[in-house]
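Let's practice the habit of predicting before peeking. Look at the sequence and jot down your guess about where helices and strands might fall. Then scroll down.
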Amino acid sequence: MSSTAAVRRLRIVIGEPGPDGHDEGARILARALRDAGHEVVYTGLYSTPEQVVETAIQEDAHLIGLSVPPGEHLGLFRRLIELLAERDASDIVVFGGGTIPDEDIPVLEELGVAKVFGPGATPGEITGWLAEHCADEA
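Done guessing? Here is the structure:
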């Protein structure tokens, strides 16, 4: 898809699972996605993968974005992907970010995570990726 494709309004659920209690990145991303014209539901701090998936299904979301705490990424993404499969909702695109070691990114991609953003990724990079890769999802 070319980067000149029209950006469509996407429904995106942003989740902040895990025990760390830092949601600044998720809140900034949610705001940037709204500013880019997307419909965003932020599930809040300490959301479980079950809550995130349930919200995504209820909201008929196109995407789920997870902001994961250090060391929790493999388990949280794995559980989220499993739950989507169990609920026959594997068509919901999953992306996310956090402090994730480079060697774990291929593992996450193998699980079905469409894109992993590391520390320092800007909201513009993320909205640009959505515009380029997800415009046809809506």
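How did you do? Residues 65 and 134 are 13 Å apart (CA to CA).
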